[in-house]
UniProtKB/TrEMBL annotation:
Pfam family, one: ApbA_C
Gene3D superfamilies named among the record's database cross-references: N-(1-d-carboxylethyl)-l-norvaline Dehydrogenase, domain 2, NAD(P)-binding Rossmann-like Domain
Residue span, Ketopantoate reductase N-terminal domain: 15-162
SUPFAM superfamilies recorded: 6-phosphogluconate dehydrogenase C-terminal domain-like (SSF48179), NAD(P)-binding Rossmann-fold domains (SSF51735)
Similarity-based family: Belongs to the ketopantoate reductase family.
Pathway(s) this gene product operates in, as recorded in its UniProt entry: Cofactor biosynthesis; (R)-pantothenate biosynthesis; (R)-pantoate from 3-methyl-2-oxobutanoate: step 2/2
Keywords: NADP, Oxidoreductase, Pantothenate biosynthesis
Protein's name in the database: 2-dehydropantoate 2-reductase
Catalytic activity: (R)-pantoate + NADP(+) = 2-dehydropantoate + NADPH + H(+)
Amino acid sequence: MTNHDTAADTVPRVLMLGAGAMGSLFGGLLAEVGVPVTLVDINATHLAAIRRDGLRLVTDGGERRVRLDACRPDDVHETPDLIVVFTKAMHTDAALDGIRRWIGAETRILSLQNGLGNGERICAHAAADRVAIGMTTCPADLCGPGHVESHGQGKIRFTRLDGGQDDALERLAALLRRAGLDCAIDPMVNTAIWEKVAFNAALNSICTVSAGPVDAIGRTPGAQALALDIVDEVLAVARAEGLAVDADRVRASVLHAIGHHVGHKPSMLQDVLAGRPTEIEAINGAVVARAGLRGIATPATRALLALVRLVEAGRSTPSA
């Protein structure tokens, strides 16, 4: 948030870069409490539905229509105080390039993206002391153009990329809490990011190559053990990077998802089914790369990386 936004009665201007499920959810919740929000995306159908009818937002609190701005990158017309990046990791540079003229010297950028290395990518576009990285476990599904749903609870944890603390960071957390989100500043957020990467590396990749929902893993001999093997491999790399990850916590989360997320198709599988590129390189790919630098074996994680790449290649190859 910029210096002129330090007053308590000044509401920051927020730009959601990436208006998929998560960006639309966060944007809608913020707009509901009076925050001026602009959703920025290239999905013309989704944007048109929001401009025409408002965002259809369905949560445990009910269904409503929320009015907020929605546009393509070319149509952004003012410098925001805060940019929240929700694009897929491989689109980060292109997305920020698309709005580069509107990234001000005082603009804060928060990444709540999946995968590893997001903060470093953003630093090519803004000073490190203006960049915050974090993770969220908030559930969200894009159910159709202009329609997002979120059921159940989640949390948001973030900190400044360079490890510094300032009042603007506290104001950002307060802003998200104002929208009803469970948000806190966590100097150890890299631990949470790696734990989420372990969760995603296991479940997203297995579901993608099997084209099945999360709960199918528990019904297939050996599949659950494979998921837990991937968790253990990813966390071994995280420990080598100096992080105090909690294997029991991640394993419990994976087993809970397998037992309770009945019919749920992870975003990576949804991407493949829709013919879109996945985030496999920022998840399994990033883990395997870092493991290689440290001489750590990750056979299960590496195998699923290769298989998802194979699935992607097959989807992009025209049939004879």
